[in-house]
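A reminder before we start the practical. When you read a complex entry, don't treat the lines as separate problems. The point of joint prediction is that each chain is placed relative to the others, so the output describes one connected object in space. Small molecules and nucleic acid strands, if listed, are placed in the same frame. In the example below there are two entries. Take a minute to note the order of the lines before looking further.
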Amino acid sequence: MELSGVLENLKKKDSFIKNVTCWKVIPSRKGEYAPFPDCIDKRLVNVLLDKGIKSLYSHQRKAIDEVMKGNNVVVVTPTASGKTLCYNIPVLNEVLRDANSRALFLFPTKALSQDQVSELLELIEGIGENIKTYTYDGDTPQDARVLIRRDGHIVVTNPDMLHTGILPHHTKWIKLFSNLKYVVIDELHTYRGVFGSHTANVIRRLKRICRFYGSNPQFILCSATIANPGELAEKLIEEKVKVIDENGAPSGEKNIIFYNPPIVNRQLGIRKSSILEAKNLALEFLRRDIKTIIFAKSRLAVELILTYIREGLNENPLFKSSIKGYRGGYLPKERREIEKGLRDGEIKGVVSTNALELGIDIGSLDVSLITGYPGTVASTWQQMGRAGRRNSNSCSILIASSNPLDQYIINHPDYFFESPPESGLINPDNLYILVSHIKCAAFKLPFEDGEKFGNAPIQEYLKFLEGEGILRHVGGRWHWMSEAFPAEEVSLRSASMENFVVIDITTTPRVIGEVDRASAPMLIHEEAIYIHDGQQYQVEKLDYEEKKAYVRKVDVDYYTDASVSINIKVLDVLKQDFINSISKKYFGEVLVTTLATMFKKIKLFTHENVGAGPIKLPPEEMHTTAFFFTFEDKELDPEKIQQGLLGLCNVLVNLAPLYLMCDPKDIRGVVEIKSPFSKQPTIYIFDNYPGGVGFAEKLYDIDKTLLKAARQAILECTCDEGCPSCVGPVEDVGYYAKESALEIIQGVLGD
Amino acid sequence: MNLTEKLKAFVGSSKGKIEKDEKGKKYYWLLEKIKGEVVKTQYGEHIEKTVIYGKQYEHSGLKLSKILEIPFDELDAIFNNKHKGMDILRTAFLDTETTGLAGGSGTYAFLIGVGFFEKNCFKILQFFMPDYSEEASILVRLNNVLSEFEFLITFNGKVYDIPLLNTRYIINKLDSPLKEIHNLDLLTACRKIFKKRLKSVALSNLEKQLLYMERENDIPGFLIPSVYFNYLRTGEIDGLLPIFYHNQKDILSMVNLLYAVFDVVKNPLYSHICRDEDYICIGKLYEDRGDFEKSIECYKKALETESVKKEAYVRLSLLYKKLNMWDKAVDLWMEMVNKNIDPVFALEELAKYFEHKEKNYEEAVKAAEKALSILMIKKRLLHIDDNKIFDFKKRLERLKGKKSKAIGQIYLL
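Here is the predicted structure of the whole assembly.
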């Protein structure tokens, strides 16, 4: 049955339509086309024609024209609008024109690089010229590396590899750096926060090396929809950038439906599980052979939904096997197969985490179901964009969970449709980040007197590093004077890259998946039910030292869910001051301990609690910096204080990124009603990054500004007792949170 | 708080704060101490020290001039040298001391030593970078000196010194002499010969084990960068002297090692340097280059060494097989079976031999059955499930088929 038929049925189905809070139809639009520019090599045009691409979309043409004029461009159009051609055409055209030309492609993850190479290779194969395209990352074998350095026309890599593997060894890459014409940065919107700030400095280093070898590459960037693509691009590459955001790709009619699962327990306000609702809706579509993607917020949810859907398709085994799961932790080979299956149409349905939100090519799907609000407006649009064909209609359904933030969004659709997507914020001149990259840059090539690092004047930094004995100033240059290899000490991402492998020992042992270090205590503690591709496994042994989990196939009717506690300990106070006569503020080093304490066994389908057990694993520790402040507690009762602390902490953590120019995930907050350090109620906001990157310190300096902004945000909010847009949902923080948060601010600011 | 204060507060370490030595240019003191001279080039100035070792000079028991007598083409195989006409007079020895061991473009070579023969004497030139600003100066001098030579002998230079120097030339935008010169790496050569006997083929261990040499008061390599940094910061020169000395010793030891390698390769059976496990390595070396006579000699010698005995039997017998010296091969395999040295291998070879060469299927069956019984015992006692068992069973099946066919043929006759 056609999608429109199913939608008509849904419209008539009372049990469905009564839960719909919004049904928006975005009309179809015609494509705007433009011919290939004359300057494009005929061989390339012919290959495109062979592939059925008869002309360009207007935005592709515009992007290519701007690149040909020598401008840097950023292309901001929705998923599946043919962004890759905006860079593949100019790059291939240039290499065809001059075989010495080189290009560097940067993707945020390894998976994306591999996907891109296969697409590029297809084009190149068609052209029939020997244009050498390689991925260069941690997985590249040693012997291939030599070849890539010398001969690679197009080198595809990620910022981390550029940082530790390529730039420090620039003398081995003379060919690339001397002839670099284009740098392509795809998925620009992922370069936010700490990661983006680091990457901006890696780009400064890249440009510096290019200057040394006499090249001056042009940048071509692509981004999903964010509020400030031009600004982010210009901050990242520190050059003028032309923004191209008029989408010329056609699109079919699109239905966006907000669905709020019905309340099953009015007293407690409990709604029907979004997971079960997602399953039911997915079956509606899948049973009629309509290609569907189901997004879920966690790995566990992915596996649960997958299990349920397969169960629901029991009557049709052929169908059952064409539904796959997709998430981080599946092995690369498995993921490539799933991506291919989706493109070929062999796979009808996929249940995924936001891993498929990024630009991996999986072709077009008809329906996307989003289980739970993804957290940001931009992410939601990205996931909705996965459904949508050029010529036929499509449908996206957002299914709310009971989570207050979800409830807020689902009941205020206008808020969602009218808000601009989030901004990408970076601060390349962050003290800590900048210093670490100045070190890396000086290691590669001595700084000259008066030389700037990107737009940053750095003489003072150089003098400081000389004082520390790391650099030596002689003959007008600043030389590296240490045995250390600085790039190895700097990680571009907050998360550690170490992975645990999951080994199935049911028969001959084999590796079935990976789990990142931070999630390991939650997902693969002993006795945990680990679900992979819909199959349940029980963890028999977790070898924490060797980073291996041994699992065995089981068939049980429950899954496990772990609880985590966060603890903070003050190690050293670096600065302190009074905010007023009673409240003190501090900036210092802290140890944040995350500990998985216990797990619950939760029955499938009913989700009732059927057992529990302890988790015995060492805590994950992070040494970082925090801003924290105290106030006097004598006038409020402890329950109110607790709620007020939580509420205020939420507001501060939500507002702070605006002042820090960071990503919301870069900082975290914790409250203590009686801190062992200060013996008073205390709110901590810490850098979610080992060693700290200076956010907390900035907060220490702007404490009053921030508190005043928090007061204003709370006062201006029209809710009664708290909502996700101020202190947080009442269900989370309590009925007194709003009132008591205001009292706390009053107390701290008043004098 | 201004930026510098901030940097000090948040990034700075409390230790190792350096007050810059404003007096600068202290290195003239160094000249006196090391008896060197200042050399000016168009890129700056640096210090050079020359040491000349006379005709009779002995380093660790070897008269250096002995090396002048070596017929060098003997060494081509061990160095994989494809450029004929190696000549010691057109060969330089090179060793660098650097500011770090990690590599990468921030590591500098602050002392470069080059040794070569000149008029029967051995001469070492050392180029010392008195400060970073003078790097181009030593590089350009090195280029001058090396332009006289066609071959360059290093110890691990292929992996370390040469790429590092190439990087230095690139960063200084100078032409590198190292692209033209043929590199012969002693570490690679020594690894080929001594890796089985010696646990480590580090230079210090080779000196100990092959040259019976023990360095006294030598500065450990890992301290060298920090001594140089200390000199730059404080002008303290005393610590530098042992580095010059260390560098000279490294170069002299390379000459000795080259002689040692030559001695071994020329006549392994009479060389006092090689013994035991070395013979299997040398035998293999000869086998690879097609000198089977010498190879057989070495393998025979290796039969005497317990730890490589099994490998020697296997290699020697296979070499005989390759050379169609079947009698010798069969003798060895029989011996292996009798002495219980990898009997399964030997029986398998025997079975093959009887089957294909002799067409004696009865003997072939016997050999295969014996091998199978050994494997079965192993399986019972040690629970080792060898997939060879399967192979032998198949072999036996085939052999029995052939055997009965052969018998049938006899009856027919």
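Discuss with your neighbour: The first strand of chain A starts at residue 20 and ends at 26. What might explain this?
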